Amino acid sequence: xxxxxxxxxxxIVGAGLSGIGTACHLxxxxxxxxxAVLEARPVSGGTWDLFRYPGVRxxxxxxxxxxxxxxxxxxTAIAQGQAVLQYIRETAEEYGIAAGIRYGHRVVSxxxxxERATWVVRVATDAGELVLxxxxxxxxxxxxxxxDPHRPSFPGQEGFTGRVVHPQxxxxxxxxxxxxxxxxxxxATAVSLVPALAPRARSVVMLQRxxxxxxxxxxxxxxxxxxxxxxxxxxxxERTRRxxxxxxxxxxxxxxxxxxAAWLIGRVRALLPPGYPVERHFTPPYRPWDQRLxxxxxxxxxxxxxxxxxEVVTGRIASFGARCVVLDDGTxxxxxxxxTATGLRVRLLGGIALEVDxxxxxxxxxxxxxxxxxxxxxxxxxxxxxANNSWTLKTELSAxxxxxxxxxxxxxxxxxxxxxxxxxxxxxxLMPLRSGYLQRAQGVPTQGRRWPWRLTSSYWVDALLMxxxxxxxxxLSFRP
Length: 480
Hints:
Radius of gyration: 23 Å
Distance between the termini: 25 Å
Low-confidence stretches: none
CATH architecture of the largest domain: 3-Layer(bba) Sandwich
CATH topology of the largest domain: FAD/NAD(P)-binding domain
Mean pLDDT: 93
Strand content: 15-25%
């Protein structure tokens, strides 16, 4: 038997970008709600505190990655990681969320009791296990494993006498001055790292097995007229414009992949020296947006390549040497430091073991309802952002939806809401990409074929469906 425990109306798990944003939405709309934010780490910020590698920055513009209720007023659209972290923490302070964050609280399991309409949540702390209860559980744990990134092993790596570092765990005292550096990878982390490492290194090579699509965008905002309009209006205009352009471009890539691929590759060719082998190093074998499109702010990667400060090599690793990386074709890359920007490991629910009335929940067996709730799991929401647009656009849609749902529960005297599975067995992936980390993912919920069990991945369509749809819409059951 579980003795007396602290009970809250809502428990939010995770104090990163989405967790703090969700807490702000709930407290602004339901100020009398008893709420706490549990954070496993000793500080807030999530990804933006964890990632400290050189060049870390926002992977999309801050006008859409930032919160709708707190304008991003800087003209810098692609912001450095520390600026994003400061923005998140200032938001938490301004809206009174910071005082309610409980650090060093790692949620281990959560068990739903239908009779009591309550979640019993077991939490690991430095002082031992703590048990809390809540009426509603909201998981804002991100989509990857904070403790265990994807780190493939390479032949001969044990004999390498240099240093191997994963960007997710960048050491504070690491130096690369006058060293030969090999960055393994071609995603957003690699294209951020290479131009940041180049000025101090002897040589920097971005070693990729397969090229990815990249696009150069201005770091500072050129679309808004700062100073002519009040900041909130400027922010709203720029947020709307950028969300619209990104959504339309994604649809264009789906409808005309050859034309958009040629346009993207042409933009890269124009930023590199004449004769550069763009076909080999910047021409992917897949369609645009089959994997995430990488942003290169102000073309800094191409500037480093053109100046001879960095190099891109496409090939497969045969083995590591004592101070080198050897490729299948015999190419030897000198290496004092190897950075394995090889990606992340998906862990959507934060590794939390869920059960409903004593029965374990298999995340891979449940279906997302309106991109937020899990079929068959009462009073639980999961914050999942867009893969093809700014993460926050979608997580804020979910937060607003849950505000409406909690209002509806209170207004009608209900204690429980649960989503049913879709009427057909057809399933689609939760995220419409073919990136390696998603292909490797296990235990990830799916979507159905039709609304409300499937989102369109188009922000404005999803916004219309989620905002205009009935709170007690299709597939939902409410119980007293």
